[in-house]
Specification:
This protein is mainly alpha-helical. 83% of the residues lie in helices and 0% in strands. The longest helix has 34 residues.
């Protein structure tokens, strides 16, 4: 049944596929502009977020919490030893780095 529907749709749209609308190269110009602008915006947004993260890390002295969290993890995996705030900050930093890597890989796949 689905094959018949697909065939009917292809037959219906066949005349439109053959038709060419003259736009003096407008469509090609627009299509060439879109990916570049999107990539530029994506790179600018990524750079802004990274810069903001670094600034906030420095302003709020994130290295102290990161160091405390890592020391707590190294000392032992006892839940009572791990202070929740540094632990979750370390978890947040690691999650952010993982997400940045995923976005970076997706960005490379689109190019």
């Amino acid at each position: 049944m689905a094959e018949i529907d697909n065939q009917l749709l292809e037959q219906f749209f066949e005349p439109a596929r053959q038709q060419q609308i003259e736009d003096k190269g407008f469509t090609e110009k627009v299509m060439r502009q879109l990916p570049d602008r999107a990539m530029r915006l994506s790179r600018c947004w990524t750079a802004f977020c990274i810069a903001l993260g670094i600034i906030l890390f420095i302003v709020f002295e994130g290295w102290q919490s990161l160091l405390l969290g890592l020391i707590s993890l190294v000392r032992g995996f006892s839940i009572s030893d791990i202070h929740p705030i540094p632990f979750f900050m370390v978890l947040g930093v690691l999650t952010s780095l993982a997400l940045l890597e995923v976005v970076h890989r997706m960005d490379r796949m689109q190019v």
